Amino acid sequence: MIETLGVGGSSSEVALASLSNMMEGVVPIAAAEYRARIARAQALMQAQSLSAIFVPAGTNLAYFTGTRWRPSERLVGALIPAHGELRYLAPYFEIGSLRDFSGLEAPIHAWHEHESPYRLVVETLASLGISAGARVGLCESTPFFVHDGLRALATGVELVNAASVTAPCRMRKSPGELALIQRAHTMTLAVHRATASMLHEGITTTEVTAFVDAAHRKVGATGSYFCIALFGAATSFPHGVKHPQVLAAGDMVLIDTGCLVEGYMSDITRSYVFGTPSARQRAVWNSEHAAQAAAFRAARLGATCESVDAAARSSLEADGFGPGYDLPGLPHRTGHGIGLDIHEWPYLVRGDQTSLDIGMCFSNEPMICVPGELGVRHEDHFHMTANGPVWFTEPSPSIDDPFGLGS
């Protein structure tokens, strides 16, 4: 007999039918915002005596130009000079596609397959007056083979990590970004509720992940960006195990999933019991709940990221977990930034002394792992405002009512 409110009692067909498209009113990032991001990057470059930064295909290229392009062995990217207009770089045969996918119009410098793209970068820099003696930043996600190719040809140019430009820009989200992240989280929470309702004894984790993907499509996403579904003792592995599990009465359930809305991420974990929670499950669940709340209370403007992690660990240690990363306890950081990447700056972890500021977004997930027995992770995200932290999704209220259906 199912005791946990909202867990089980329905079917996958009924649960899926309860969902509808939630994408109405979504507003993509406008060209004016991309231009403002480039201007912000240029101001940082000028302050740091950088002549330009190179941004390869990936989320930084999407962030600054709106151009979504999958990284590969062929160099595609952009040069953002400290002064002047950005330049795209791509193979000749991709020019038409790049123009179609680009969010901002700009000149495209191209190379044929037998030519060196690294020489093209150096020549493009020279056309901008950037040569020996200059400092050029490479986006931190630039592949080593690109860095290696440029280092051999950019004689006298100092190549440095551009994270000092990209990270400060990206870690503070605009109102438009916050709205997209909020929508993605709202959609994923609806998927979580539907998924919990259709669980039944004998269902496999493989079937659950397939349902989650279908549910994300039903609410308007292109499917799950990722999904981890775990039952029983497997819940003690933060990122799962390779073998599927079969749900039995009394099992702890952990589902961690997310989707994309205009490229922006959601990432929510829910932990609950299929059936009647045992005293042990209840105690661990409540300790996790208290640690998540402690981290949220510690998230104040001007506080350091590491102080939020310390607050969660202090709460756990008071309940007998840890200390530090010791198990049973919390084996990883308390949280990460989120945006176009599922993990991005800054991080709620010891050693990160970044001060919390308006627009920063974080996961709050001080997971408890009890090897061979169970794991509990409550994961919700919050963003910083002038008045302190605000949840994108409210945490689970209790182990008996994990989705707040009885309130």
What can you see in these coordinates?
With 407 residues, the chain is α+β, with helices and mostly antiparallel strands. The chain folds into two domains: 51-161, Creatinase/prolidase N-terminal domain (Creatine Amidinohydrolase, Chain A, domain 1); 172-391, Creatinase/methionine aminopeptidase superfamily (Creatine Amidinohydrolase, Alpha-Beta Complex). Helices cover 34% and strands 19% of the residues. The strands form six sheets. The chain has a six-stranded mixed sheet. A three-stranded antiparallel sheet has the order 7-8-11. Helix 2 packs across helix 7, helix 8 packs across helix 9 and helix 10 (279-298) packs antiparallel against helix 11 (305-318).
The top-level CATH class of the largest domain is: Alpha Beta
> How much of the polypeptide forms β-strand, as a percent range?
15-25%
Largest sheet: 6 strands, mixed
How would you name the oligomeric state of the polypeptide chains in this document?
Answer: single chain
How many extended strands? 18
In helices, the fraction of residues equals 25-40%
* Count of spatially separate domains: 2
Distance between the termini: 22 Å
**Can you give the mean pLDDT?**
97
- Shape, principal axes of CA atoms: elongated
Order of helices and strands: HHEHEEHEHEHEHHHEEEEEHHEEEEEEE
Secondary structural class: alpha+beta
What's the number of helices?
11
**In CATH terms, what is the fold-level topology of the largest domain?**
Creatine Amidinohydrolase
CA-based gyration radius: 23 Å
Q: Give the strand order of the largest sheet, numbering strands 1, 2, ... along the chain.
A: 4-3-2-1-5-6
- Stretches with pLDDT under 50, minimum 5 residues: none
